[in-house]
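Recall that a protein's primary structure is simply its ordered list of amino acids. Everything else, from secondary elements to tertiary packing, is in principle encoded there. The following example makes that idea concrete.
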Amino acid sequence: MHEMTASHLRSAYGGESMAHMRYIKWGEVADKDGFPNVARLFRAVSYAEQVHANNHFAELKNQPGGYSVTAGGGFGIGTTSENLQGAIDGELHEVNGMYPVYLEAARFQLEKGAERSFFWALSAERIHAAMYQEAKQAVDGGQDIELGPVQICDLCGYTTEGEIPEKCPICGATRAKFTTFA
């Protein structure tokens, strides 16, 4: 594997791992603040971020060694509104900067597995940003978000509200490969 792509995978792994844990903590705050649906959204997206981290890590299976991985995620716990803004900012960073660059580098270097992993994450992160923006609008209006069951594809992290699709629109996984957060 080209070192640039391996470095991008390590960076993405670090960022997704941090987001996974950060969203768990922010979900706990949302529960305490009286926003159970926002808390559930944080837990569901946390799981999707774990899926992304696992995919990036799997692509690094032949790249042993110790590495320092710097991820740009924020630290700290604020109000549910502040935490949602942190989530929006993080997702938009991935959508508008990080993943497009990583994806193009993987394509250029003909790293098909990394390309797939980056594409899957980028596609899901767009959805996460929109869901967090909707949740923040509700919270800023003093309301919990109205939210049906959140479905996460176990293979690629695709996220949707409502019914499980027959096939994942990102990776083609069957409905049996989804985890529901109800």
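The two ends are 40 Å apart (CA to CA). The mean pLDDT is 94.
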